[in-house]
Specification:
Length: about 130
């Protein structure tokens, strides 16, 4: 039993050390909101998968980041409507298509991030901040 506990700790420790340290809402920070698809029919939610190259656990709605420059890795959450407008090749693993964007966070601001699928060519679809408060 003792060997199993040691093995579990040894396996989980590297992952806990590599986890990205998000800010708390009470700290100086900006809020990134992901789960709202936006006002336009061709805006889709995005999921944050990494910050500055460090994988992050799935966050359902929002995260807070300290002010500064970041590289965010986002995955689109496309529905059937979006996939109807894509070729067979584009549809394959469309939800796993990762987009890396540079993003500046300012203290006290809220950023609503979405996946913009308005362009005619689906290769031009990209994540955007559609609203900043």
């Amino acid at each position: 039993m003792k060997k199993i506990v040691i093995a579990v700790i040894a396996l989980t420790l590297p992952f806990s050390l590599l986890a990205f340290n998000f800010a708390k809402p009470s700290e100086p920070s900006g809020k990134l909101i992901f789960s709202e698809p936006g006002p336009h029919m061709s805006f889709y939610p995005v999921q944050l998968t990494a910050v500055n190259g460090q994988n992050v656990p799935t966050r359902a709605h929002a995260v807070w980041l300290k002010p500064g420059e970041y590289e965010l890795t986002l995955a689109p959450q496309l529905d059937g409507h979006a996939k109807k407008h894509m070729s067979l090749k584009e549809r394959r693993n469309a939800d796993q298509q990762l987009e890396v964007i540079s993003f500046k966070v300012v203290e006290g601001k809220s950023y609503y991030l979405t996946y913009d699928a308005r362009a005619e060519d689906s290769l031009d679809w990209k994540p955007i901040a559609y609203r900043i408060e």
